[in-house]
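[INFO] parsing input record for Glycosyltransferase
[DEBUG] input buffer:
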Amino acid sequence: MTTSLHQRPFQPAFSHRFLPASLHYSNLPQRPISLFSRAGLLSLLALMLILGVIVPWADMPGGIFSVNKASSVNQWRHYTLPQAASFVAKNGTLIVCAVSQAYLPFLNNWLISISRQKRQDMVLVIAEDYATLDKVNERWPGHAVLIPPALDSQAAHKFGSQGFFNFTARRPQHLLNILELGYSVMYNDVDMVWLGDPFTYLRGLHDVYFTDDMAAVKPLDHSHDLPPPGKKGRTYICSCMIFLRPTDGAKLVMKKWIEELQAQPWSRAKKANDQPAFNWALMKTTGQVDVYLLPQSAFPTGGLYFKNKTWVQGTKGKHVIIHNNYIVGFEKKIKRFRDYGLWLVDDHAKESPLGKL
Ligand SMILES: *[C@@H]1O[C@H](CO)[C@@H](O)[C@H](O)[C@H]1NC(C)=O
Ligand SMILES: *[C@@H]1O[C@H](CO)[C@@H](O)[C@H](O)[C@H]1NC(C)=O
Ligand SMILES: *[C@@H]1O[C@H](CO)[C@@H](O)[C@H](O)[C@H]1NC(C)=O
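[DEBUG] output buffer:
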């Protein structure tokens, strides 16, 4: 990804306790009571009853009313990738994203656009923190999984930071795990909006499909090969949208991507993200892997779609996925989506399987 979803931290949503508020000892009689009067005996009985019933509850953290809630939430802590993948996959294929809590509005926007193509049933959200896991599964049971360890979500927001690098560096391993289970997988960043169904563009039986992040206009009939390297000695393929078949070739690229990330870890000077390593992996496996560059007219980089009106006019009706990159900042991304009528959560949240968040 070329730009960030720079974040404000969100407050954790699970600070409620469910202690019954009405049960206070101040409800007990205040005036002196004679044990021998009828009223006194009744009061004593009531007191014993109250103490006998309430005190054991009071020992339990959260009280008994939270037990059901806690166990229904905890059930997802043991939900594994093989279980989630087999629950969600259609025709052996998954659509996957990886999100932390602050990205939930973008997740919802992306999901609305996918629902319009009737592909939402295939979506598996890889939650990077427990708040996201619980939120998605509470509203849409089974569609989120957390692959431990959970990240410190506060650290994972700022583009160029080590936390953000650590967050994105997990992506090839997640994808490799899914391939090893035998599924095809489409990965998307969630700052994307579908205008059409990308699956009809996955022609042939190649190992890896991807899009170019270069903004330079290509001819409509451009080659589907890996483009030549650019100024930095490497290609500029986007790690934001990738389709993989469960082949040796696709697995090799994921393994190489992991190696490249380990060989060039994050440094203060470089402030790397995961995309260069993906490009080195593609270049170093050339000849061993069957790759397919998707058409620019259908999958334009944000650097083209949001910056060249002439091109957008000339390719009208051909756009399939719009990526809101080449811009830094959470608020700026939302504003740009709004300006282009692509921020769907304002008016169409009902169309999301998560509803209004
Ligand atoms: C199922 O997957 C196969 C192989 O990937 C593909 O050729 C076929 O069109 C898919 N069928 C549907 C209904 O999507
Ligand atoms: C990122 O990962 C490295 C290596 O695993 C670790 O030392 C570092 O503390 C992590 N940083 C953040 C901010 O998560
Ligand atoms: C914008 O798109 C038009 C039409 O495709 C193209 O001729 C022109 O070179 C593009 N402009 C830039 C700055 O890339």
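[INFO] The mean pLDDT is 83.
[INFO] shutting down worker
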